[in-house]
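Checklist before submission:
- one chain only
- standard amino acids only
- sequence pasted in full

Submission:
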Amino acid sequence: MEGRTVQAHPDIGEVREGFADQLNRLETDRVEIGMIHYVDSMADWETVANGPVMAYARELRAAGTIGCIGLSSHNPEVALAAVNTGLIDVLMFSVNPCYDLQPAGEDVEELWAPKNYENSLVNMDPQRQELYETCQRLGVGITVMKAFGGGDLLSQTLSPAGRALTALQCLHYALTRPAVASVMCGARTLEDLDASAAYEDAPESERDYAAALAALPKISWQGHCMYCGHCAPCPKGIDVAAATKFLNLCRAQGAVPETVREHYALLPHRAAECIACGACEKRCPFGVPIVENMRQAAALFGA
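Returned file contents:
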């Protein structure tokens, strides 16, 4: 259960009254996440972090009224700054295959502006990738909003990608990003809700987004690992997607965090076992240099 503590609001009295009212309406004295909503500018984040809002959120967490402090944002620069402070436990962030190509900005409307999709877009914005990987490294869980882009990604006509995706593909894309724990599915009808709930029992073939993304006419992830698993099976049993994810976490950090080293060590088969047969590269829809990645992972982790 989530409680909305504030929307970067300057009046802490109204924040306290609003949160108390919400608890009363929900007929509870505790919520799992106290969410500070819609912090899309660095100025808003500084106000929240250094002012009474964050102090109140920490007070609520210390009292057990909320389990975690959360923040929602559409801006990867703001979200990354917040995550790196260690002040938040949960991040609500907009994740979908189109938003992930767009650079940081304070105007959320720019994420979907047609002019920003007029030319072919190639690969994920590096700041967004760093955000996801930093969240995973620091243990900040991401709950996803805008997975369907307000429904536009599900429409051949409206999708800026130039082709429609299915709800299951959008959900699987979001859930396979580093640190993502859950997706807040938008629904206009009960049928929409049923379509999203069907994800739990859907076969991998219906969840699979790799072929669809590789065929989008206006977007390319050439050379970028999407953790889709199409590289499997490896004849040596290496979980190539997992090994690549750990490699990328270290690349983003510029070092090897001990937690990442420990998770890598738990892999039953590691990158040093790669025989460079290239079978994985032939199956990869995105042209990732997997053999070279395994070589670098083996050198980095020493195994």
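Reviewer check: Residues 2-209 form a domain with the TIM Barrel fold (CATH 3.20.20.100).
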